Amino acid sequence: MTVESTAARKPRRSAGGKAGTTGSKRSTTGTKSTTRAAAGTARGTEPELVQLLTPEGKRVRNAEYDPYVADIGDEELRGLYRDMVLTRRFDAEATALQRQGELGLWPSLLGQEAAQIGSGRATREDDYVFPTYREHGMAWCRGVDPTNLLGMFRGVNNGGWDPNGNNFHLYTIVIGSQALHATGYAMGVAKDGADAAVIACFGDGASSQGDVAEAFNFAAVYNAPVVFFCQNNQWAISEPTEKQTRVPLYQRAQGYGFPGVRVDGNDVLACLAVTKWALERARRGEGPTLVEAYTYRMGAHTTSDDPTRYRLDDERVAWEAKDPIARLRSHLESRTDTIEGFFAELEEESEALGRRVREAVRAMPDPDRFAIFENAYADGHALVDEERAQFAAYQASFADNADVEEGDQR
Ligand SMILES: Cc1ncc(C[n+]2csc(CCOP(=O)(O)OP(=O)(O)O)c2C)c(N)n1
Ligand SMILES: [Mg+2]
Questions:
Q1: Residues 324, 384 within the same domain
Q2: Which domain holds residue 276?
Q3: Where is this region: Disordered (predicted)?
């Protein structure tokens, strides 16, 4: 028996619901997969993953996870498809805007739409998500306007949205740090006696960070209602996952005493089901879960990166055959033959979104040059004052900055 099932038997909070059943069921799967770990992570010998839609769009039955998507009918499937298409369209527009000099940098989510829309749509309004810098699909699900994601990448603000407005924290670039923020927040949720849950997003590369290890341990020991949602997109910039771990990532959870599961990250339905299961465990007081969404970063790490320098095109081509959007489209087409109008309308909606994003970015006002100094300390600081004065002198040295005088203390 693994420690995770012990935690499942002793819910620290009682928020209703039947504790333990799914948790202990998972622990059995977890134990079984230890054997699979011995096979290592060499490609081609990967362990099984939870899949509800094959790459060809065929629905696969799964007794354990089907109940979590029992409410997903034709309309909801179309909704998930729309979310993925619009997110991809927004992402493509942002990449184009960067190429045209309107943004300084853009981290594309191309290929990871299912992982993000599935997990994002599994959340409830009172749940809280702690993203990395690539969670554009999650942001979409949380109701953050996509244009707000772009201010930081244009260099005109330090974030762009109120985290508490949508329970979606600001993008976090310090790799893995948000796993600790999420765990601390989740511990607070538990202390409040609320039945909300928290998602900590991170990548395969982040799994090597001390912060993530510490978060796993704190979450386990304090039974925090947090879902560690790892998008294993196979790469951390130019480092492959083989350089991060000797065991499949989801199996790390066992060592900390909570369940881990690998889901097909290109299958939106499976990501929705598995994340819902994990969130419900958290709500019932059964503690953390590690979900490894096995997916692929189809584009560059960011617009500053050139993946042709370190990976073969064959790999991308192989993953293109598992494209999350094409997979759901095939499935939708197999369910009904009267859906062409839906695709055509969505195409128009996508183009309109692209135009809206482009116009909004171009209209973003430049920030006040001195505002950055105001946000460092609540009550000011002598060092910041000195730096502000230096910056003012520097600005005043430009001929077209006649409005800024040396010693300007704005
Ligand atoms: C603490 C820290 N170290 C290094 C970096 C530089 N860095 C930015 S992204 C990245 C790779 C992250 O890879 P992964 O966690 O797999 O996420 P992905 O970018 O693939 O979504 C690194 C090392 C950083 N931002 N923060
Ligand atoms: Mg990665």
A1: no
A2: 3-362
A3: 1-49
Q: Are residue 89 and residue 15 in the same domain, yes or no?
A: yes
Best probe residue, ligand 1, of 209, 237, 292 (max atoms within 8 Å of C-beta) = 237
Rounded CA gap, 173 and 328, in Å?
Answer: 31
Task: Name the token pair of 263.
Answer: 């889901």
Ranges in the chain, pLDDT < 70: 1-45, 401-410
Average pLDDT score, the chain: 89
CB crowding 253-273: b at 16 or more within 10 Å, else e: bbebbbbbbbbbbbbbbbbbb
**C-beta of residue 308 within 8 angstroms of C-beta of residue 238:** no
Q: Which residue has the tokens 């990871």?
A: 112
Are 339 and 403 within one domain?
Answer: no
181 is annotated as an active-site residue: no
- Ligand 1 pocket, 111 CB below 6 A? no
C-beta 203 within 6 A of ligand 1: yes
Which residue's alpha carbon is at the smallest distance from atom 3 of ligand 1? Answer: 175
What's the CA angle centered on 262, arms 259 and 266, to 5 degrees? 145
Using a cut of 0.85, tell me whether the model's pTM lies above it.
Answer: yes
Pairing mode, strands 235-236 and 239-240: antiparallel
pLDDT for 60 equals: 97
Set 78, 154, 284, 297: catalytic member = 297
Q: How many domains in the chain?
A: 2
pLDDT 10s digits, 13-70: 333 333 322 333 443 333 333 333 333 344 456 788 999 999 999 999 999 999 999 9
pLDDT digits (tens, 9 = 90+) for 92-124: 999 999 999 999 999 999 999 999 999 999 999
